[in-house]
Amino acid sequence: MTSFRLPPGPGATRRALLLAAAGAAAAAGAAEAQTMPVTVGREGWLFAQWDSVDARIADVQRTLPVISQAISIIKGAGIGVAVLLIPSKTRLYRQYLPPNLRVSADLDRRYGLALAEFRKAGAIVPDLDTVFRDRAKTVQMWFKSDTHWTPMAAEIAAVEMAKAVGPTMPPSSRPGTQVTPLITRQHARGDLVRFLPDNQRGSYDMESYQVRDVVNAGGQNALIADDTADVALIGNSYVEPRYAFQPILSNQLMRPVTLFWKPNNVGPYSSLVQFLNSDTFKQQRPKMIIWTHLELDLETTPTSGSWGQNGMSVDKFLGDVRRGVGA
């Protein structure tokens, strides 16, 4: 296991908003701002409008029991569950919001509600919100113009997850992933820039970031294809290889970790079901599943239109989970 010392860094539904943006013609002034699914904040920080400053607590309270039931089903089948609960960029970087936008009290309590509910269901859930708020004083946790966290935030999260999960796992006969010292790279303009008018896009250049590479002859593809791991990470684009969450987690757990990820519009529900139906799961039933959830998606049940063709009824989702784990 490598001991990491992190350096300081530089200081409607999603689907509906994206469709609105695609159909809107570029125009100047306030009317244009109403159609853009992106908010331009202080110092040029960009925020997705679906990562709202408010929270629909009634919807959250409908969603959390569904996730908790899935956790209970998996645990009942003899598989441990940890939840990678990723905080909201809007809430964490509220100081860069426009002056007319303020984070609501409901948004401030949303993460804590989920944390308590998932832990009550028996999942291991590191409190990344508290950790991130502290580390954000010295480390840039999100890209300025992107919806995603930086690899340094992913590393901090992976270390915290390993601290929480590691003591519950038996020693592994196989080693964890070896990683390099930090490497500085350039991140292309973020995924939110494309929603800006043409005359504003030029204000956004590439951003510097730091990340660790894998010391492995087979590279990331070999890591993802590892079918002997007893820890499975199920997630979205926040845990795709370029953010290096998986290799850092493997390094800190001192054991292989397999990765199964889908774009976030697939959703956490279908992603879980697809993994449970995969050859990877059938050939190597893990001792621990780490299930990724974005805080900003805690208001969306499996039936949400946000998931498109990947949506399903709550009963179907829970039934598919039961069948998948053989419960």
Automatic annotation (TrEMBL):
Highest taxon in the source lineage: Bacteria
Subcellular localization(s) per the UniProt record: Periplasm
Keyword Signal: yes
Example GO molecular function: transferase activity
AlgX/AlgJ SGNH hydrolase-like domain location: 38-291
Keywords: Alginate biosynthesis, Periplasm, Signal, Transferase
InterPro entries, sorted: ALGX/ALGJ_SGNH-like, TAT_signal
Annotated signal peptide: 1-33
Pathway of action: Glycan biosynthesis; alginate biosynthesis
Keyword Signal part of the UniProt annotation: yes
Pfam families per UniProt: ALGX
Name listed for the protein in its UniProt record: AlgX/AlgJ SGNH hydrolase-like domain-containing protein
Biological source species: Roseomonas indoligenes
Taxonomic lineage of the native organism: Bacteria, Pseudomonadati, Pseudomonadota, Alphaproteobacteria, Acetobacterales
